[in-house]
Design a protein that fits this description.
The two termini are 20 Å apart. The protein has helices at residues 3-25, 28-62. The protein has one domain. The protein is built from 2 helices and no strands.
């Protein structure tokens, strides 16, 4: 598993936490920051998945 997938998932989870705390405390800035972190994490996670797919294709070609 690519490290970008792990880091992306961590950012997504951290963003969910920030968004949740923002909702509880009525802090719209924190909610927005959390949503941004989630979006960034999702992109990074998808990038990691793409790298894994490419790596697998290259490994299959080598066989």
């Amino acid at each position: 598993m690519d490290s970008d997938r792990i880091k992306g998932k961590a950012k997504d989870l951290m963003g969910q936490g920030k968004e949740g705390v923002g909702k509880v405390t009525h802090d719209s800035d924190l909610q927005a920051e959390g949503k941004g972190d989630q979006a960034e994490g999702n992109v990074q996670e998808k990038f990691g998945k793409a790298k894994d797919t490419i790596r697998n294709v290259v490994d299959d070609i080598k066989r």
